[in-house]
Write a structure and sequence with these properties.
about 450 residues; alpha+beta; hpI Integrase, Chain A; 3 domains; three-stranded antiparallel beta sheet; two-stranded antiparallel ribbon; 9 strands; about 45% helix; elongated
């Protein structure tokens, strides 16, 4: 009687072939079936820019299990193996020879070192896409893809960090060469540079974002930037953010010409971000409220920052009245020896902007107004930190001084979480604390 097979009839050919392959590998024949050392696989030239498509990666031959024998050459144990690299924008498989240990090490120990070196490739922890050049990946893939997904100011910050800090150091490296140790050495080296703790933190965030993007799209199996630590800060960070008191605000307002004084007035009494202020239209005004549904920042139009920011908030009638007063306002601007007169509001249709550039009625540029009018007024008062953000912080503090409930203040600031209002915007006010402490004695009396 024929011996019954342990495999079903339909699977016997595939199973027998699998057993033969395993036996061949055990007997060392797998080493004899390797491709010649001169063999090089390439991908088509159409994938030469950015990250090649998945189809291009699949055209490269599958990696074989590599188990080369270390050879003693002079004073070193050397190892020959195949590696995927990117040359002239093309992925190629080349032969490498590497020193792995001094010749004084035993053969057994050299084999262990060789196995450890080849383990990421043999076990699939090192993908073909990890041979992509970091500089090309960032410039041709990451930044172009992320540009429509970020605000223009955020994108400019990312691009500046990439060009000024990352590309000069990592531009010629492959993604796989940017290991956790290499990145940690780089961040630790930032301690010798004259950078603030916030700048170092932003550099780490950008590195993590770029390599995390590569991981999500299959170029890396893990993000080596996770868990990186920054050098200890040499100075403590300011726990409180500066804000204007009502008395300081009155002085500041008198030092700023129109129509920019009205912009500062509206910003501090509504808590609007400057991008939301620049995007206000006449149809956003109500009798005692303002609807925020659009933002503008240096040529970039978009929706508000979050779902909670897209809302209608209550404002004092004096704010609405001051805005409408702009329609009848004319300002004089020096032009050399001449003085030109401009209407502040060129057109006031429902879809027209409320705050327009004085000369041609185009959308305002917040950084231009800040450097030409707000900053000089702040320096005159001895308050060089005054900026658009400090006006929003001042609004949050004034809500606290006015006794606003936390949920009411959260709604007015349009935050998704009350913790953002309490931990970041509302600051410690010594006068308010003193009044509370003084009231404690009335409980006993």
């Amino acid at each position: 009687m024929a011996k019954e097979s342990m495999f079903p009839a339909d699977d016997q050919p595939a199973a027998q072939q699998s057993l033969r392959n395993r036996a061949a590998f055990t007997n060392g024949s797998a080493m004899q079936n390797r491709q010649p050392l001169t063999h090089v696989d390439t991908i088509p030239a159409k994938a030469s820019s950015g990250v090649p498509p998945v189809e291009a990666w699949e055209k490269m031959a599958r990696r074989r299990f590599q188990k080369p024998t270390p050879k003693k050459r002079g004073a070193w144990w050397t190892l020959r193996y195949r590696d995927d690299v990117r040359i002239d924008g093309k992925l190629k498989r080349i032969q490498r020879e590497r020193r792995i240990a001094p010749a004084t090490v035993s053969f057994r120990e050299a084999c262990k070192i060789a196995d450890e070196l080849l383990r990421p490739m043999n076990q699939g922890f090192e993908s073909i896409g990890s041979a992509t050049n970091f500089g090309q990946f960032v410039s041709e893939t990451y930044l172009p893809i992320y540009k429509p997904l970020l605000a223009s100011s955020t994108y400019e910050r990312y691009e500046g960090i990439v060009n000024n800090y990352l590309l000069p150091v990592f531009g010629g490296k492959m993604l796989r060469e940017m290991t956790s140790l290499v990145l940690q050495q780089y961040l630790s080296g930032l301690a010798s540079k004259n950078l603030s703790h916030e700048s170092r933190d932003k550099i780490r965030d950008v590195i993590s974002a770029v390599l995390g993007f590569a991981k999500r799209h299959g170029l890396l199996h893990s993000n080596p930037a996770e868990g990186l630590r920054l050098p200890v800060a040499k100075t403590g960070r300011r726990r409180t953010k500066p804000y204007l008191t009502p008395a300081q605000f009155v002085i500041l307002l008198n030092l700023i010409p129109e129509p920019y004084a009205t912009m500062v007035y509206v910003a501090i009494f509504t808590g609007l971000r400057v991008s939301e202020l620049a995007g206000l239209r006449w149809n956003d005004l109500r009798e005692s409220a303002i609807t925020i549904d659009e933002r503008y920042c240096r040529g970039d139009w978009g929706a508000p920052k979050s779902e909670s920011s897209n809302a209608t908030i209550a404002v004092n009638r004096s704010v609405i009245e001051r805005i409408y007063a702009l329609k009848s306002l004319n300002v004089k601007v020096k032009a050399g020896r001449a003085v030109r007169t401009y209407r502040v509001v060129k057109s006031d249709g429902p879809e027209d902007l409320i705050f327009q550039s004085v000369r041609d009625g185009k959308p305002i540029r917040d950084n231009n107004i800040l450097t030409r009018f707000i900053k000089p007024a702040g320096r005159t008062m001895g308050l060089p930190w005054v900026n658009w953000r400090s006006l929003r912080t001042s609004h949050a503090v004034w809500l606290k001084l006015a006794g606003a409930d936390v949920k009411d203040a959260q709604g007015q600031m349009r935050h998704s979480r009350a913790s953002t209002l309490l931990d970041i915007y509302q600051q410690f006010v010594p006068e308010a604390q003193r009044r509370v402490v003084d009231r404690l004695t009335t409980l006993v009396q």
